[in-house]
């Protein structure tokens, strides 16, 4: 990039403390406080009448899907409140009455805006017209939609190789938008389709595909209600998937037991007051976790091995602990697994976990006595160097217990964004799916590329090395979501063109290529009409159910377009009508898109009709105990090794976490009330013994450093908060600490960044907090 095009933009905003107030962590989640916070956010952003009207339609049969997490909607939802506090915040965030356009950007340069915090940027409001940031300029200017599409087409035509373009997808998009987007990338000639799965549940997909034959979970929502034991591992449902607590509450009331496995004891798994239940709200709530195992960061393999050893030992005394008929008929690798377990000493494994043997015995006994077992997990398992093995060790427990492919048992990776699973199902993937390629040739009449493309990490490296020059983002806040923020920012700035299809302003709109386009799109709650006909979209939940979503609000502006239409018009401008697909027509009638999905994508059938109401489940081989797609036609037990971090005496292991006032990188507020944090995000949670060893006091100001491969990375200015976290471990919020995650450190096989186990050094500064 030429020197004169460099813009002086900040990665972090103006770092300053915002006035931390510390309280004791809460012991009850949701309840009246959750309702009050949901109403406070929606009323402030949307107004009272508009808020109530819209909330009553969210997750209802003929309404729209929540723009937040991917947790499924029950068959008979509450007519009053089938949403959670964070779902209400997500709705308020996208349906805000605050709008910004050309006049705003004429007054405020990208350099000036970059000094704001991520929270402040998000609060500016909806972007309501297409904008361009020209080379060497620091102000966005208005641009017509046609000119924007022609600019994209011209840049793509100038590339020497299709693999110089990258098409990134966020999990907020619909099946229709993602399908068109993926087909446009392939028709252009590349499989460079990184997506947010690469940064979160890619490890789940790899682990499950290798052991069970499908990269998705196997349970339905009803399975959770009847489970005898549910393990919630590396997950904080009270903040990240609050509606999951309603399912766990039903499980508990049906006699099920809940086991929490996580370095932090999170409020949502301590006690839950269901806002849909009057007696819950007026009473003391529902105690949730029967047992909490505060495992040390990234010692899940050691914990699961110890549980397996205990189950095998109990089975030797009473041969009905393990499901031997199931193992003989459906599972391979049993003898090798038993031999591997013999190599480990129980006390050695227990010391690694940091959990008392008494608690581990209690969990082993529960698993021994029951067979309807579900394991749920999230990024506490998926974002480690050995993430795939972490997940597979828990799959080993399910396979030995025969808790696969029967009611009330199985795997439940809890996806973060509302359609991240659907994106992958309809073809957003950087690898080559031969069956999908055959269907594309047969039904779409073009030859898709046959070489793998870049995942997220390697896309960043390609841009950094100037091997990729055009970067298009369908949603998301890529710069802040990815690892190694400074490296990622430099990579994006090396591009000749960056395109962001978004609802609201974020830092990725300020840290851009030489030319940047900001293309505003509809929110999930907004009406989408084409030629006088109301359109609808479809999404897939964490449990594999496809259902419709139909917005009800007037769009924020007449100058914004839907994601499917934007994608279709990009392709139309590029191909100029010279392609087998009628891109323009597809952007005007989403039934046409679904017809193509049904023809080309496995499991989709008559989607326009079957997705009505509460939709239909996609096929899932595990539910049928069908493992024919695996090499020997059997599910696989795996041999997994213990991780070795080789921490130096002054190093601690840091995991990044969300606050209760954020969803992914979107910051709704500055409170994390469940953990007792108010009006601040720049905090680091530390064990008191680790603090004492470093002569740190409560609210001391520290910098955090990671050092991998001789490259020192620093996140500055954090306040130390003593917390109940295992010794040797720390926690802090992302995206503020993504600066510390090395670009070249990621999970084996899945390439997911190691955001949950970063080696760091804590440096006390001379600054003081006032």
Characterise the protein shown here:
The protein folds into 3 domains: 94-200 and 419-612, Rossmann fold (3-Layer(aba) Sandwich); 202-411, Dimethylsulfoxide Reductase, domain 2, CATH 3.40.228.10; 651-764, Barwin-like endoglucanases, CATH 2.40.40.20. 58% of the residues are buried. By secondary structure, the protein is α/β, with parallel strands linked by helices. α1 (31-46) packs across α2 (48-55) and α9 (202-212) crosses α20. Strands 6-5-18-17-16-7 form a 6-stranded mixed sheet, with helices on both faces. Helices cover 34% and strands 17% of the residues. β21 and β22 form a beta hairpin. The mean pLDDT is 95. It is globular. It contains 30 helices and 33 strands.
């Amino acid at each position: 990039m030429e020197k004169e095009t460099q813009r002086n933009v900040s990665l972090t905003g103006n770092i300053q403390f915002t006035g931390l107030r510390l309280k004791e962590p809460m012991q009850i989640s949701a309840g009246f406080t959750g309702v009050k916070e949901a109403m406070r956010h929606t009323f402030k952003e949307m107004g009272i009448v508009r808020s109530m009207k819209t909330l009553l339609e969210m997750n209802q049969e003929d309404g729209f899907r929540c723009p937040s997490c991917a947790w499924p909607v029950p068959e008979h939802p509450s007519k009053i409140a089938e949403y959670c506090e964070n779902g209400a915040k997500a709705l308020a965030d996208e349906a805000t009455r605050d709008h910004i356009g050309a006049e705003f950007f004429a007054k405020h340069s990208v350099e000036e805006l970059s000094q704001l915090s991520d929270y402040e940027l998000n609060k500016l409001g909806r972007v309501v017209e297409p904008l361009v940031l020209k080379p060497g300029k620091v102000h966005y200017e208005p641009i017509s939609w046609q000119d924007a599409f022609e600019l994209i087409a011209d840049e793509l035509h100038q590339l020497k190789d299709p693999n110089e373009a990258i098409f990134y997808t966020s999990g907020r998009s619909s099946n229709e938008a993602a399908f068109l987007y993926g087909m446009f990338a392939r028709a252009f000639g590349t499989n460079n389709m990184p997506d947010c799965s690469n940064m979160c549940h890619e490890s789940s997909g790899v682990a499950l595909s290798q052991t069970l034959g499908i990269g998705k979970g196997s349970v339905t929502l009803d399975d959770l209600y009847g489970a005898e034991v549910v393990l919630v591992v590396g997950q904080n449902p009270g903040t990240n998937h609050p509606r999951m607590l309603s399912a766990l509450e039903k499980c508990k009331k049906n006699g099920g037991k809940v086991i929490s496995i996580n370095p932090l004891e999170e409020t949502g798994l301590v006690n839950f007051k269901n806002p849909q239940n009057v007696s819950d709200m007026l009473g003391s709530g529902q105690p949730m976790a029967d047992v909490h195992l505060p495992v040390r960061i990234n010692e899940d393999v050691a914990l699961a091995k110890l549980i397996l050893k205990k189950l095998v030992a109990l089975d030797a005394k009473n041969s009905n602990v393990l499901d031997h008929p199931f193992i003989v008929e459906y599972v391979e690798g049993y003898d090798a697994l038993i031999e591997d377990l013999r190599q480990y000493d129980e006390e050695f494994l227990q010391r690694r976990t940091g959990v008392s043997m008494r608690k581990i015995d209690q969990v082993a006994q529960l698993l021994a006595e029951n067979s309807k077992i579900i394991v749920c997990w999230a990024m506490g398992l998926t974002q480690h160097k050995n993430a795939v093995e972490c997940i597979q060790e828990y799959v080993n427990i399910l396979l030995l217990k025969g808790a696969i492919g029967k009611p009330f048992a199985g795997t439940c990776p809890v996806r973060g964004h509302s359609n991240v699973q659907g994106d992958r199902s309809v073809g957003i993937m950087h690898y080559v799916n031969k069956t999908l390629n055959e269907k594309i040739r047969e039904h779409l009449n073009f030859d898709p590329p046959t070489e793998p493309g870049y995942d997220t990490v390697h896309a960043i490296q390609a841009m950094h090395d100037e091997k990729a020059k055009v970067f298009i983002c369908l949603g998301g806040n890529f710069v802040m979501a990815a690892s190694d923020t400074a490296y990622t920012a430099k990579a994006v700035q090396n591009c000749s063109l960056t395109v962001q299809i978004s609802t609201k302003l974020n830092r990725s709109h300020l840290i851009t290529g030489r030319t940047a386009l900001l293309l505003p799109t509809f929110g999930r709650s907004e009406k989408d009409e084409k030629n006088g006909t109301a359109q609808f979209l479809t999404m897939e939940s964490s449990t594999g159910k496809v259902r419709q979503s139909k917005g009800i609000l007037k769009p924020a502006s007449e100058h914004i377009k839907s994601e499917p239409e934007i994608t279709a018009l990009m392709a139309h401008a590029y191909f100029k009508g010279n392609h087998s697909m009628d891109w323009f027509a597809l952007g005007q009638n989403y039934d046409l898109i679904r017809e193509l999905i049904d023809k080309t994508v496995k499991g989709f059938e008559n989607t326009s009709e079957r997705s009505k109401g509460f939709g239909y489940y996609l096929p899932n081989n595990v539910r049928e105990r069908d493992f024919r797609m695996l090499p020997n036609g059997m599910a696989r037990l795996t041999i997994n090794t213990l991780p070795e971090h080789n921490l130096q005496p002054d190093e601690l292991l840091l995991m990044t976490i969300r606050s209760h006032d954020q969803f992914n990188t979107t910051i709704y507020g500055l409170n994390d009330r469940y953990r007792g944090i108010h009006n601040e995000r720049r905090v680091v949670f530390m064990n008191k013994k680790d603090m004492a060893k470093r002569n740190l006091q409560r609210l001391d100001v520290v910098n955090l450093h990671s050092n991998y491969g001789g490259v020192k990375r620093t996140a500055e200015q954090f306040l130390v908060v003593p917390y109940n976290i295992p010794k040797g471990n720390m926690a802090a919020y992302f995206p503020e600490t993504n600066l510390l995650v090395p670009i070249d450190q990621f999970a084996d096989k899945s390439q997911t960044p190691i955001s949950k186990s970063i080696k760091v050094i804590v440096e006390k500064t001379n600054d003081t907090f006032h």
